């Protein structure tokens, strides 16, 4: 499954978000975010797994697919509390990258997928509570 095109961030949005530097770091994931345009009533999301995690694209894609599938499963793009919508760019937290690689090196593909989903859910729930406080 893939995100519908309207729910994905465009390159110009990603550049804007990273320059604006509204950032919420969590354990393994970090979230750049900004309020969505007034005329759009949905969230837009994109995810980036850095080359520092692995030079092999297959390894990076396992993590990225786990995150994107979790976004789809939780309906993060459509449903949002308080009817406030955001542009969200998800990245791996560089300071915790070595710990993540060490934890995942002995896992198979399915175990990596399950572990990534569990950690992403924790990080995203922390991110949501951070947004509600602000």
**CATH C-level label:** Alpha Beta
* Largest sheet: number of strands, sense, barrel closure: 4 strands, mixed
Beta strand % = 15-25%
Write out the strand line-up for the largest beta sheet, numbering strands in chain order.
1-2-4-3
Distance, first to last CA: 32 Å
The tally of domains stands at 1
**Count of DSSP H/I helices:** 4
Q: What fold name stands as the CATH topology?
A: Ribosomal Protein S5, domain 2
CATH architecture: 2-Layer Sandwich
Radius of gyration: 14 Å
SSE order:
HEEEHEHH
Q: Which stretches are low in confidence, meaning pLDDT under 50 for 5 or more residues running?
A: none
Which word captures the global form? Answer: globular
Average pLDDT works out at: 90
Helix content: 40-55%
Structural class: alpha+beta
How many E strands? Answer: 4
Describe this structure in words.
Helix 2 packs across helix 4 (109-133). The protein is an alpha+beta fold and 134 residues long. It has a four-stranded mixed β-sheet, sandwiched between helices. The protein has helices at 11-20, 57-73, 97-104, 109-133, and strands at residues 23-25, 29-35, 44-48, 86-92. The N and C termini lie far apart (32 Å). The protein has one domain (5-127): Ribosomal Protein S5, domain 2, CATH 3.30.230. The longest helix has 25 residues, at 109-133. It contains four helices and four strands; from the N terminus they run αβββαβαα. The chain is 45% helix and 16% strand.
């Amino acid at each position: 499954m893939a995100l519908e095109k309207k729910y994905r961030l465009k390159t110009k949005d990603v550049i804007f978000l990273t320059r604006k530097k509204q950032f919420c770091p969590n354990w393994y994931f970090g979230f750049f975010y900004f309020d969505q345009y007034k005329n759009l009533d949905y969230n837009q999301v994109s995810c980036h797994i850095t080359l520092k995690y692995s030079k092999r694209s297959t390894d990076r894609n396992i993590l990225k697919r786990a995150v994107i599938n979790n976004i789809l499963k939780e309906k993060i793009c459509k449903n949002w509390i308080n009817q406030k919508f955001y542009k969200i760019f998800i990245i791996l937290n560089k300071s915790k990258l070595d710990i993540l690689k060490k934890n995942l090196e002995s896992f198979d593909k399915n175990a990596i997928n399950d572990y990534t989903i569990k950690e992403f859910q924790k990080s995203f729930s922390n991110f949501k509570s951070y947004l509600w406080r602000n």
